[in-house]
Amino acid sequence: MSHSGHSSLPSRLSSPSHTKRQSELTSSFRSGLSSHSGHSSLASSRLSKLAVPLHTSNVIEGQLKIKYSGGAGLTAGYCRISSVFITVEMLPSVQITNWDVLPAETPSQFYLVLDLTNMTNHEMELYYTETKCIYMEGKEPCRIPVPVDRCPLNKLSMLNGNGDIGELQKVCSEHIASLVDLRWQLLGTESTGKATLSGITLTQDMLDLVRMSPLQWGMFY
After folding, report:
1. CATH number of 94-211
2. Is the pLDDT of residue 29 over 80?
3. Are strands 132-136 and 27-30 parallel, antiparallel or unpaired?
4. Residues annotated as region Disordered (predicted)?
């Protein structure tokens, strides 16, 4: 993946071609996924094994009632009522399909690698850090590396060392969801929104990268 900002993103991610555009942000790039080879195929296969969408469509059903009257009936207090049943399917504008965790250049951070798809028919601008954005065509997928601070020990201390993997995953998942800010805007419109990572699941290997190391250093005499 071509990435402006962190130049030494782990080589397991490939570098797709892209077209830069003018932006008020310090860096931006056009989305696109390229073929993977060598070590890059490893990241692709790891991501594909986690192909579980975080969000599905929501169906809302309702009844629209129309009451109307006129003429002599209105004067006499009569009216007619017509009912129409409506079903609305709500789909997310941004769909997260795959995710993985990779080491960052600094020990205090990791990369959350996300595969996303613009589910709309419009060109979209997706902001994934304060200074970086990506442009996506309608129905186009992309892959982005989001730098995230590792989960601090004070958040993990509440686990009391009981080794409950479910609680550990919950704490780390909530930590990621609280820090990752995915904001989108459909170009040429006033439509904006935010993609959420609530409910993301993590494997044991991912948890080892997400949480801070419990090692403590000291001087012995």
Report:
1. 2.60.40
2. no
3. parallel
4. 1-37
Angstrom distance (rounded) from CA 168 to CA 151: 10
Tokens of 188: 């040429």
Calpha distance 41→197 (Å, rounded): 25
Query: What value does the CA radius of gyration of the chain take, rounded to a whole number of Å?
Result: 24
Length of the chain: 221
Please enumerate in sequence order all residues whose Cβ is within 8 A of that of 216, keeping only pairs 6 or more positions apart, or say none. none
CATH 2.60.40: which residues of the chain?
94-211
Amino acid at 217: W
For residue 58, what are its two tokens? 């929501």
- Among residues 112, 155, 114, 119, the alpha carbon closest in space to that of 137 is found at 119
C-alpha to C-alpha distance for 125 and 190, rounded to whole angstroms: 12
Model pLDDT for residues 51-66, shown as the tens digit of each residue: 444 456 689 999 999 9
